[in-house]
Write a structure and sequence with these properties.
- The complex is a heterodimer of chains A (106) and B (751).
- Chain A is α+β, with helices and mostly antiparallel strands.
- Helix content of chain A is 37%, strand content 16%.
- In chain A, strands 1-2-3 form a 3-stranded antiparallel beta sheet, with helices on one face.
- Chain B has 751 residues and is mainly beta.
- Chain B has 13 helices and 44 strands.
- In chain B, a hairpin with a 5-residue loop joins strand 43 and strand 44.
- In chain B, helix 9 crosses helix 11.
- The chains are: A alpha+beta (106), B mainly beta (751).
- At the A-B interface, helix 3, strand 1, strand 2 and helix 4 of A face helix 5, helix 6, strand 29 and helix 7 of B.
- Strand 1 of chain A pairs parallel with strand 29 of chain B.
Chain lengths: 106, 751
């Protein structure tokens, strides 16, 4: 049976992700991310680079490729880690109903 | 979004030869161009920065711009077919539809789109039908009721009496399934009489008013036949028997036998009128036919069971664009990496009005014109670039983020690829119908074969992969003042061993993955005869490819058996249509990468790169030269590709697979995450510890060995190695090790 994210048990991994969104993770966080990064609807969240190494925004691919990618105007990210954090927060909210009210960097 | 895209008419050109560039420009009436030497294609501010050097040529200046389009979709066209609708006729075929519910697909047509006249045999909504037009505004259609199931064989027979309008359509599945209604028969009368046209006959496409071909069919067609008179399915089957009944033979207008000339684009008519057709945009051949029994898996041994052609509406072989700039290169042009830099305005965050169209200048072809060549040859892995052309897994393989361990990044080129599927996919992509892309052609824009392109699977940091990752090596060689020539994979395939013979040293790129038999044989011969190979990447000599003897610029892969792959070849279709050779991994042919270069593919992962730890063999006097001024325990814990020298894909020693017994393990990578995972041909039962955090086999080996002929092979075992050459101005242990090897290899003293 596929693991179901439990906010009480898994909340402990939030800070680990915030500290290091990309790279080696603990097995617990990796399991969480493997679940969170799968959207059975086929709608894939992507990073759209507006200026190389300077600006990114989020986009979403529709299920049908003949439809355009929906690209957000804001927020504009100036580093990829911030974008990873924003997507993590959105997914956490979608899965658990909880908000993560922490900035990417203190 | 890109406002200017294009491609060269070849990837390799010799001094004194002419190269043509074909561009499409979305804005404005002109563009400015110049040729540049590509020194570094990475604009990462953490690195040394982009570097191009202008090379004055006749290309300099302003050129007229055109908007050009790719007319994708494969089909068969046969000229000279008589106007079929003059008399009663029958069309028969076996078909295996893959997207039967797509609207308005053409199975066969003799049709004039301008006047809406003639006939089209179609599939729409999964049902077979016919559309006829009289050219005066009258259109009439008829369809069967049964809805076809994808990837099942059907026998279709459609007959029409133009005079009366009587039409019969029979759609019969080969296998009947309970509770399905995929068979259908229509018998009735059309209220419009089709115009009889002296127009080309097409399969799997319709010529549109603008001359393009559209309304393509997705799926296989086998044994398409045209008969005079009205006939039923039994007549079609009787035609396929060894002894054709005479009364039927006299009815044959055309019978295209796709089991003939499988390695060509010819469609052979075995009927009396020799109405041979040709296949455009490379539909897939060597496909199992309606009569495949499974007793034979090699089409050359039983071609009669491989009489199917698989058409796709997104097949592309030749974009056939008009030339925008043509330039004869100077006779003394140094060998190296170059690009046409084309600009049609200022770029901003919403549009890129600038393109670099890459190519290589090789040494002169004629030996007499070559003069004294440098000792170092860089083999540009252009067939790997081509295999990855317009690599779109990030678009089509939803969930790729999970494999990457990070968000997928889309730049302007990726957004353009998303919107322009007609550019055609890479050998990693699937067609819209889910079948794997077997062919990749360079006669079309290849958006990721370009400096400045950032790959969604390149390591974090510079995000470079394939060609653009190789520009780190170009930049390093430039900074080191190394005099070298460049030849491409395609040059090696065409010229063989002799192309390598005069060079004592060959450098690879970061990911030389795809090799034809001729390429493999030439390289092995060179290594065995004393060559000094610097394998500066990983996952090399992995997949076998085939070239076509009559169609330039296209390669074929068959994803057979196993290997790290994004789609799988259907059983029975493991042999290349271009050559008949068994395809798949070189490892399955007794030629594991370890046989060529000492190490072979073991793991891949795309989150972060790691580092190497010095191994005991580093102290062996045989390799003292490699570690001159490198006392470090940790090697390459820095880098522009993923932050380390060991990453993306890794190779290691395997004696059972052919690593030589005298190979030295100088260092091995360490500290990989769980996302760096064992490649699937390395386990027989599924392991619980595939990741680098739990599996000791997941690592790269830095290696060296001498060959009996006095040569030697140095292998880095990592795609990310070259990403660590440039940090700290090239003053680092990865750069020093690489230089130490090159310096010793330049010394002709035998090993």
């Amino acid at each position: 049976m596929v693991y179901k994210i439990d906010p009480d048990a898994d909340r402990v991994y939030i800070e680990e992700f915030r500290q290091k969104p990309i790279g080696a993770h603990s097995p617990g966080l990796q399991r969480l991310l493997n679940i969170m990064r799968h959207d059975p609807s086929g709608r894939q969240v992507v990073l759209v680079c507006r200026k190389p190494f300077e600006e990114w925004v989020l986009g979403q691919m529709p299920v049908d490729r003949s439809e355009p990618i929906a690209i957000e105007d804001e927020p504009i990210f100036t580093d990829i880690g911030s974008a990873e954090w924003e997507v993590f927060r959105r997914r956490w909210r979608a899965i658990t109903g909880e908000d993560i009210n922490m900035p990417f960097r203190d | 979004m890109l406002k200017i895209v294009g491609y060269p008419d070849r990837y390799s050109v010799a001094p004194g030869e002419t190269i043509a560039f074909k561009l499409s420009v979305e804005e404005g009436a002109s563009f400015d161009a110049r040729i540049v030497r590509v020194v570094n294609g990475d604009c990462n501010p953490e690195g040394p920065g982009l570097e191009f050097r202008h090379v004055p040529t006749d290309a300099d200046g302003r050129h007229a711009a055109l908007v050009q389009r790719v007319d994708a979709g494969s089909y068969m066209i046969a000229e000279g077919v008589p106007p079929l609708a003059e008399k009663p006729f029958t069309f028969c075929a076996f078909i295996w539809p893959t997207l039967p519910t797509r609207p308005d697909q053409t199975l066969a047509a003799q049709w004039d789109s301008a006047t809406q006249s003639g006939f089209r045999i179609v599939i729409a909504g999964g049902r077979t039908g016919i559309v006829v037009g009289d050219g005066k505004g009258g259109i009439s259609t008829a369809f069967v009721d049964g809805v076809m199931i994808p990837r099942r064989w059907y026998h279709l027979v459609i007959s029409l009496d133009p005079a009366s309008g009587d039409v019969t359509i029979a759609q019969r599945p080969f296998i009947a399934y309970a509770k399905t209604q995929d068979a259908g028969v229509f018998s009735g009368r059309l209220d419009v009489r089709p115009a009889a046209l002296a127009a080309p006959f097409l399969l799997a496409g319709t010529v549109e008013k603008d001359g393009s071909v559209d309304r393509h069919y997705d799926g296989k067609i086998d044994s398409p036949t045209l008969l005079a008179g009205q006939h039923g399915p039994e007549d079609h089957l009787r035609l396929l028997q060894a002894h054709m009944p005479q009364e039927l033979a006299t009815s044959v207008v055309a019978r295209w036998d796709f089991s003939r000339g499988i390695d060509t684009a010819a469609a052979t008519d075995v009927g009396p009128s020799l109405l041979h057709g040709r296949l455009e945009q490379l539909p897939t051949r060597g496909m199992k036919g309606w009569n495949w029994t499974g007793e034979e898996h090699a089409w050359p041994r039983k071609p009669e069971q491989y009489g199917a052609v698989h058409f796709h509406h997104d097949d592309v072989y030749d974009a056939a664009w008009k030339t925008s700039v043509e330039v004869r290169l100077p006779d003394d042009m140094p060998s190296g990496a170059y690009a046409l830099h084309a600009v049609c305005g200022d770029s901003d965050e919403t549009a890129t009005r600038e393109a670099y169209i890459a190519f290589f200048v090789r040494p002169p072809r004629a030996k007499a014109a070559r003069g004294k060549r440098p000792k170092v040859l860089l083999l540009a892995p252009t067939m790997s670039y081509l295999a990855y052309a317009n690599h779109g897994e990030h678009i089509t393989a939803r969930g790729a983020e999970r494999q990457m361990g990070r968000l997928l990044t889309f730049g302007h080129a990726d957004l353009y690829m998303y919107d322009h599927a007609e550019l055609g996919g890479s050998l990693y992509d699937t067609h819209a119908d889910g079948s794997g892309v077997n062919y990749s052609s360079r006669l079309r824009p290849n958006l990721n074969f370009s400096p400045r392109y950032h790959s969604w699977l390149g390591g974090p940091g510079s995000a470079l992969y394939q060609y653009n990752a190789d520009t780190h090596l170009f930049a390093w060689l430039d900074r080191k003042g190394v005099d070298y020539d460049v030849v491409t994979d395609e040059d090696l395939h065409e010229d063989g061993y002799e192309l390598l013979a005069e060079y004592p040293i060959v450098l690879t790129g970061t990911h030389p993955e795809y090799h034809s038999t001729a390429m493999w044989d030439a390289m092995k011969a060179w290594v065995d005869r004393g060559g000094r190979l610097m394998y500066l990447g990983a996952n090399g000599w992995y997949w076998r490819i085939a070239f076509n003897k009559s169609l330039p610029g296209v390669i074929e892969v068959r994803r057979a058996e196993d290997g790290t792959r994004t789609w799988e070849q259907e059983p029975g279709e493991y042999h290349h249509s271009f050559t008949g050779e068994y395809g798949g991994l070189w490892r399955r042919l007794g030629r594991a990468p370890n046989v060529m270069c000492g190490i072979g593919f073991i793991a891949q992962g795309f989150d972060m790169s790691s580092y190497y730890r010095r191994a005991p063999d580093a102290d062996n006097p045989r390799v003292g030269f490699i570690f001159k001024d490198v006392p470090d325990e940790i090697i390459g814990n820095f880098g522009l590709v993923g932050g380390g020298a060991a990453g993306i894909e890794l190779d290691c020693i395997s004696l059972p697979l052919g690593s030589p017994p005298n190979i030295l393990r100088l260092a091995s990578s360490d500290g990989h995450s769980s996302m760096m995972m064992l490649t699937n041909e390395e386990f027989s039962i599924v392991l619980p510890n595939l990741g680098g955090d739990q599996n000791e086999r997941v690592h790269a080996d830095l290696t060296f060995y001498e060959t009996p002929a006095g040569g030697a092979v140095f292998g880095t075992g990592s795609i990310a190695w070259c990403g660590s050459l440039l940090p700290n101005g090239g003053d680092n242990n990865v750069s020093r090790i690489t230089w130490n090897v090159l310096e010793r290899f330049l010394d002709e003293t035998p090993f």
